[in-house]
Request: fold
Amino acid sequence: MAHLPPKLRVLLVDDQPLFRRALATLISAQFDMTVVGEGENGRDALEKVRSLHPDLVVMDVNMPGASGVDGVSAIRGAGFATPIVMLTVSEDDDDLFESIKAGASGYLLKNVRPEDLFEDLRGVMRGEAPIAPAVASKLLEALRTGGIPPRAGAHAAVPAETSLTRRESEILQLVADGLSNKEIANELTITEGTVKNHVHNALEKLHLTNRVQAAAYAVRQGMANPENVRD
Reply:
């Protein structure tokens, strides 16, 4: 009997259990892949990498508690070179740029065909860096114009230690202006769910509990005009 090569050991990190389980079933049905563990946020990702030593991590970007970007940063900071592919619904520039800067090996969208996803995952193990066509042009344009934008905009007076992303700072200013999540989504041409995730992550990083505290913080930091803040 021929000796079969070892299967690619995959760790899945996504805060939606139904999606995670469905994807695990699809991946494990591949002749050369198996799912060795699952997590629901970036914090889980580091713990699972430490305990399971997977060959590859497939991780969402926007997750409560600790985002995928946080997870990539933590894994790289702990000295692991494990390939990490972001699999997300977000086409947001900030999510893309921050993931790549943190050390992600690829950035794919959840509308990818399963067979294409499997080939992309195999490609990562050959040293390739898959980027979804819908966002690849953004990355190329950023590189053409001088590189990926910095984590925080020059106009945002947020202390570096808060580690707010550029998009989180932008949304915090709009929260301070009294805009609802739906209004912010329309203003920035992103989904309301993406806004909710950014607001949640910003509150977590700033150790705040609600939008009123966030608005007050934005005013104190000079990110918003007090006269524009609505109740």
Observations:
- The chain has two domains: 8-144, 160-226.
- Residues 192-206 form the longest helix (15 residues).
- Strands lie at 8-13, 33-39, 56-59, 84-88, 106-109.
